[in-house]
Amino acid sequence: MHPHSLVALVTLLALLTYFWMSTRVPLARRKCGIWPPAMTGDPELERTIRAHYNTLEWLPLFLVSMWLFAIYWSDLVAAGLGAVWIVGRILYAVGYARDAPKREPGFLIQAIATAVLLFGALGRIVWVLATVGA
Amino acid sequence: MHPHSLVALVTLLALLTYFWMSTRVPLARRKCGIWPPAMTGDPELERTIRAHYNTLEWLPLFLVSMWLFAIYWSDLVAAGLGAVWIVGRILYAVGYARDAPKREPGFLIQAIATAVLLFGALGRIVWVLATVGA
Amino acid sequence: MHPHSLVALVTLLALLTYFWMSTRVPLARRKCGIWPPAMTGDPELERTIRAHYNTLEWLPLFLVSMWLFAIYWSDLVAAGLGAVWIVGRILYAVGYARDAPKREPGFLIQAIATAVLLFGALGRIVWVLATVGA
After folding, report:
1. What predicted TM-score, i.e. pTM, was given to this entire model?
2. Which residue, A57, A117, A55, is CA-closest to A82?
3. Distance from CA of A123 to the nearest CA of C (A)
4. Which of A56, A71, A100 sits opposite C37 (nearest CB)?
5. pLDDT tens-digit profile of C10-49?
6. CA dist list (Å): C8 to A115, B130, C71, C82, C90
7. Could you read off the pLDDT of B84-113 as tens digits, one per residue?
8. B103 by DSSP, 3-state: which?
9. Which one of A19, A30, B5, B92 has the fewest CB atoms closer than 10 angstroms to its CB?
């Protein structure tokens, strides 16, 4: 009845991780005293905003790829790779707030998880279209 | 055959509300004479851009939560909460363009609607996984 | 078994097009020597960032409309309009990096494709709700 509950769970946990990043922005604003709509003026605030926005940039790549992977391959494997993505994103946000180069290990982890999901789904979809037809 | 037509309708109305916010940006640009790619330089333009972008930030949280709520609970209740979200977002954008603190009531309305959708879906998904299994 | 494989394929190709735009940002940064988290300071860098972000702004409008069009009308027509969107977006990004007014033809192409998908889906959903009920 609900064949994708694991991926649905990981989706909401990923969105909560993303939401947690957005809550770090007002805390960084309080620390440096720069208020909306200003988005610049303090390096730590700018890094905190960029960590949040870079995650927003990747959300469509990640979420769509994870769901297509779950539909065309396996719910369990997709959810596992999604959990790896979440861990990578947490490392990324915590590292980026400290210093720009410290965002790189976490970024790499989430990028690899996304690439496996995206190209895994893409390969299977091309194969389905080539063998079974549209 | 189409069990989620109400949520599909509210989804497109929410996207049109979001699109309407984006059309306010060129109008604010004309008023102050600041052109792309510049994103700063006039407080009203910056507030209009931020209203649009904050809505973009919340779209994945809102749309994904509404659809999972519709699938795991009720299409009708999800669509109703989605309509509340749209009203909150319109109040937010109109208020924010006037003055930064005037964005708060609308923001609160859409945040509560999103939270009910997200945690409602999350609770049911955890329950399904615990009782029925993956 | 997989009734929307064509739209799934176009979805991943659109996301790869979007990802390709994001890879142009570090190249533009190298050219002008401006590093994260800074987002301003060189017109070509700013235009490259804006091309990427404008595509992010339109992704929810485009992807959701294409899928609802595929579900309520036709997978093949939705995928064809999606391919038009991708062509428009490539013209847009290449043009915008050169000069701000050169982004306009590509922008128009992708906007028309999105509008047909969105209002096509919206019309059919309203018709389904009016004749068959929720």
Report:
1. 0.95
2. A117
3. 10
4. A100
5. 999 999 999 999 999 999 999 999 998 888 899 999 999 9
6. 16, 31, 12, 10, 19
7. 999 999 999 999 999 999 999 999 999 999
8. helix
9. A30
